[in-house]
Amino acid sequence: MYFEFGPGALAGKHVLDATFRAYETWSFNCSPYWVDLERTDNISEGTRWPGPKSLDQMGDRYVSAGRGDLCSPEQPDSWIEFNDNPQEPDENLTSTVRAFADGKFPRLTLMLRAKDETEPRAWKRFDNNAELKVWYVHTPGVPTSVGAIPGTGATAACKTSASDPLTATVDTPTVQARVQTKVEQHQGDEEGSLQAEFVMQRSSTDTPSGSWSQVWTDYKPDSGWVPDDTLEKATTSKRADGGLYRFHARTQSHWSYDGKSGDLFSPYSSWCYLRIDSTAPKEPSITSAGPYTACLTDDCVPNGGPGVAGTFTFSPNAADKDVKAYRWRFMTSDASATKTVNAATTNAPVTRTDIKPSLSGLQTLSVEASDLKLDKSGNVRWGPPAYFSMKVDLAPEASGRWHFGELKPGSGTMTAADTATVGSRHNATLVGEAGTGGSTRARRGAGDYSLRLNDDTSIPAEQTGHAATATPAVNTQGSFTVSAWVYLTDASVNRVVLSEPGSNTSAFALYYSATYKKWVFNRADKDKSSPVFIRSLADASNPPLKVWTHLTGVFATNKDSTASDDTIQLFVNGQPQGDPVVLSDAAASYEPWTATGGLQFGRSVSAGTGAEHFFGLLDEVAVFQDARQPSQVRQEFRLEQDGVPANELVAHWDATISPPSGSRMIESPEDPDNPASTSFPYQRGGLTLHAGATLAGEDATALVMNGTSGYASAAGPVIDETGAFTVSARVRLNKALLESKPDGYRGLVAAQATPAGKESSWALWIEKITSGVYQWKFGRTAVDSTGKVVATALAPAEEPVGDKEFDTWVDVTGVFDATADFAGKSDGAQHFGVAKLYVGPFAQVGEEDAGLATAQQGSGTLSAGSGQAAGATGNYLPGDLAKLRVWTGAMTADQVNSQIAQPST
User: Fold this and answer.
1) Which residues are registered as beta bridge partners of 815?
2) Residues 133 and 144 in one domain
């Protein structure tokens, strides 16, 4: 019999002891016989007799039960329990369940069998109600709210760049950390017995290039333990004036059980950098002249709104005499949004009327003062920050929004509803029945639909399908924003996503330009037959086809009566493309004018004639009657629903359903609207096998690779890698083959090649660090046109691969979040996005964010079991592959857990 367990509530617990028990209901006779409990590979729909192979002995029992009064004494049905016997070192139930709870493998499959299956008298029956009983302690998680109180205030901050450290004007700063368990607890659950450990180091030269050595450590609380989510603070011993320090923290979890006790430790948090400088300017004062007011209580009044300017005055601290400059930013903005202003005279206050929060809700303005002197690193020194918290009113909602969720294929629906709630509704009518309709390929995932335009290959090439509203959906004379998710399938000519026409031309167009080979947002200078088109161009050319990309066009009048400072700007996947284009600078004839025609989905219109029809899919279109701020554009790109970003499975290869001995690892046949379908909706085609790779397996089909030449491949890419995405593989390492590899060897699980050079734009791999030490990694690499590496982002696993992760299935997942906070590394670099690795359901936390400094789009071969890395091709995987899946959208930890680690009970 086989019993399979999902991790469920066990995930994130440190297992101290485990007992498996099964209910025996029948024995062949009254004599006891040995019963073995063994761990096996997982079972699935593809499992074939004689079943998955055994991996390890869990325990055995010499028993007989279930014959009732046929035996003397009577042998009733009975629970048979298996628990590690200390006298038998081959019994590994507790250590196996511990590895399972740690996410080392996705399913725990246990088999009951007679020790001697050839002996019929040893045969037994058990019920299907087996239980796994576990004694555990909470696994500690990386602490949050790590930072330092740099002066005499009460607010802590953390700066993650050594070249721009937090300045402390006291020589005994207070540091803090909020202790955590690895998995968030639920009401009524035990909260753990936790403690915070702080460690501080100093640079040997008091510059970022110096070597670091430990100078202080402390634990809080001083005695006893605290529950999950408790904020702990510690005051350091006296630090040297001018010294450059860094500190981090970790959570300690204490346990006691069966007369024993011990401690567990989380990984450390990221480093926070701090410079002690008693002569630096102190915290300045911040006052507001409106519309924003300081939040002195939780119940503060909202004012203004995103993009609405406030008037603030920065004044030097009463203790300072030589303040010459100030810098400020909102804490929800990345460091690149920091702005600086010099005081008119030394120690003079500065008033700014152009400080604009970019998001609604509680926002905190951070302001620092400087005397413009240099620190030991040669950088301008800035004092500790002062903070002004305020509540920003809600942004205007979309004035038009089209989800296309009603366009179920085959339904005959030819109207897409405008679901916005502001202003009048503008439903869109689909035009050209042969060239338009709905598609199951939709940005919000299974069960959603998108607008399909002219991409049916069974219809002649000249297709003019589109959709349009009856009247204008956005006033093009005032500030506005338009956005859409697009899936372009043909780039042979211009392909317009959105436009809105006047009498002679379109007032604006969001489109792909076949001339520039780029995404473009434009405005026409006037409504005339031969207008001047003013363009904001994408940074990168040749965007990939058949991938989901988010486009946004912003037109800003800057809320004044003159057109001289009107601008347009294109955003791709939430990222601004170049600087805003000043329209009057590009065309002196420009004037803001109002479109009179309806919003066009998938074409432009000139003098009443449609052209430049879009081929592909459109989804989640929105228009706003204001100029969205960059943070709001990124928020729209996240496509959140109930606070959670949506994702869409765009590639799914499954060896377990592939024909054994076949030549391709086929796509999953799953289609929520047509379960009998044998074609994945995106129709990527199978992964072609190369010599050394076979579809085989003892009990269920897997892609088996020899580690020297075998791999499978397809044409890529399948995602827009300048946006957010998730890639996950279910992989089984061959320990014997991996041990034969040299130190430093990389076995690539999956990878997408870059356009030039022997590198991969993204890759999941196992790396042999040294003999017996192996580590999962997820990375991204950016290259220039010659193939030279210009940026990397590496997310390694927290711990080496354990013995129980070999020769069994493990889920490894890479997530790239293009909207993640842009924390600076020690080199001060700003990031385009952040990579994160998951092993099973757990994010692997490092001391620095794995940030990629520049956008990179792969092209060419997408491979499984091989790829390009570190200037070399090959990198063959010594192991097997069951599934390879790719999603548009960066999954959260909860989504990784629910959609990958344990998609069913």
Assistant:
1) 726, 836
2) no
